[in-house]
Recover the amino acids of this structure.
C-alpha cells in the first residue's frame, strides 16, 4: 500500500534541538528515512562520517557542485553543506518519507524541486534559553556563540514561511507534536486518494 515518499524539512537555529528531535522521532515512526547531508566542516565531538554527516574536503564538495550532484547546498559559517540528489530520490522512490535537517535557504530550494515538501520550523522557548543551550554544548568559543545568536535572531523571522511551527521547550511534547505532524500528513487526501480510488472503485474526482 506504499506510494512515493514525501520530504519533511526541519529547520531552526543552532541549539534549537533539531537533531535530537529527529533522532527521537525516527525511533517512533516507521517508514521514515533520513537524508545525511554532506559538509566540508570538520567533525565535532563524537560525530562519525556517514552517520551525522558525510564529511569531505572543500575541493571534493566543489566537484560535486560542479557535477550537479546536489539538490540544495549552502555556505554556513564558511563551511559548505549540501543534500545529494541521489540519496534523496533513492529513498523517496522506495516509499520512504525523508526527514531532513537543513537551513532556511536549503528549505526554499527543496520546495522549488519538491512542491509537496512539508516545512517544519523548530523554535526555542526564548533567545535566552537558546544561548544557555549553546553554552552548555561546549562546542563553540565565545565569538562563535555570539555569531550563532545574531544569526538566530535574523533567521527566526523566516519561520513565517513554514507550514508548521514547533516550540522545543519540553522534549517529550515536541517529539509528540512532530510525530503527529508526520502521521497527519501521511493521511492527507492528496496522498491517499489514488489508493482509495483503486481499492474501492471511486471513479475520478
Amino acid at each position: 500500500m506504499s506510494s512515493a515518499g514525501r520530504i519533511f524539512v526541519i529547520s531552526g537555529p543552532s541549539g534549537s534541538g533539531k537533531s535530537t528531535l529527529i533522532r527521537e522521532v525516527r525511533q517512533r515512526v516507521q517508514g521514515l528515512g533520513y537524508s545525511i547531508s554532506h559538509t566540508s566542516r570538520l567533525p565535532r565531538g563524537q560525530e562519525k562520517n556517514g552517520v551525522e554527516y558525510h564529511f569531505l574536503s572543500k575541493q571534493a564538495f566543489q566537484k560535486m557542485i560542479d557535477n550537479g550532484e546536489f539538490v540544495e547546498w549552502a555556505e554556513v559559517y564558511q563551511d559548505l553543506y549540501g543534500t545529494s540528489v541521489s540519496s534523496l530520490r533513492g529513498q523517496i522512490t522506495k516509499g520512504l518519507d525523508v526527514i531532513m535537517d537543513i537551513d532556511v535557504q536549503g528549505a526554499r530550494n527543496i520546495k522549488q524541486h519538491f512542491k509537496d515538501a512539508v516545512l517544519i520550523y523548530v523554535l526555542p522557548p526564548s533567545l535566552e534559553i537558546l544561548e544557555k543551550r549553546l553554552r552548555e554544548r561546549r562546542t563553540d568559543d565565545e565569538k562563535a556563540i555570539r555569531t550563532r545568536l545574531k544569526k538566530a535572531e535574523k533567521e527566526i523571522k523566516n519561520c513565517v514561511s513554514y507550514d508548521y511551527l514547533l516550540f522545543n521547550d519540553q522534549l517529550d511534547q515536541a517529539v509528540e507534536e512532530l510525530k503527529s505532524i508526520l502521521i497527519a500528513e501521511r493521511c492527507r487526501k492528496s496522498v491517499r486518494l489514488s489508493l482509495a480510488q483503486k481499492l474501492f472503485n471511486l471513479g475520478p474526482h
Remarks:
- Strands lie at 7-11, 32-34, 38-39, 54-55, 70-76, 79-84, 97-101, 118-123, 164-167.
- The longest helix spans residues 171-186.
